[in-house]
Amino acid sequence: MSEAVGGHAFQYSSARHQAESAVSGMWLFLATEMMFFGPLFLAWIFCRHADPAAFDAGARQTDLFIGTINTALLITSSLSYSFGVAFIETGRRRAMILCLVIAWLLGGAFLMLKFAVEWPHDFERGLFPGAEFVFTPAERNGAQLFFVFYFFSTAIHGMHLVVGLGLVAWIMLRAREFTPSRNTAVFVVGLYWSFVDMVWIILYPLIYLIGRGP
Fold first, then answer.
1. Helix (H, G, I), strand (E, B), or coil: what is residue 8?
2. Residue ranges of the chain with pLDDT lower than 70?
3. What is the DSSP secondary structure assignment for residue 13, as one 8-state letter?
4. How many H helices and E strands in the chain?
5. Using one digit for the tens of pLDDT, what is the confidence trace for 134-149?
6. Would you give the end-to-end CA distance of the chain in angstroms?
């Protein structure tokens, strides 16, 4: 752990330099994350074009109701966190904490719906790729590929969300340290939290909406 000198760690020339480095570092990290998620999304779209009927059949088996609720939960969670950032910038620490608690609870609710309700329901209906997969032979290969993408991408997204929940909890535990002039950590964690939200906004139509029409 770096030793603080005059309000900033010794390797930085000033507190402002430290704050700017933290923000730039998070943006760089998120850029590397997009280098992972981007090819995943492109592969999904490419495979869908190769067998659209089977992918459409797979999409129609997903739970649109839960997917839509979860989308609303994450969007509201990000909005709440953004309010928290604005509140700490004006010195309203308690309001910030309240907003972060709401954001954390909504993120937790997303995880519960996805992995304690939706996934078990998918397993029960034989939607997990394997010997018990329920689709007809004509659609089986393409639909299995759809659900490979589905389970893999939602698992990876869920792991990122768990990390985000840990970071938000860390910010709440340190809430007394933040002031209008010293809140970089709150802002940086907010960038990560918004990134997790944006990844889901891309996943939502890929999983639940495309191919669901008549």
1. strand
2. 1-19, 213-214
3. S
4. 7, 2
5. 888 878 888 999 999 9
6. 58
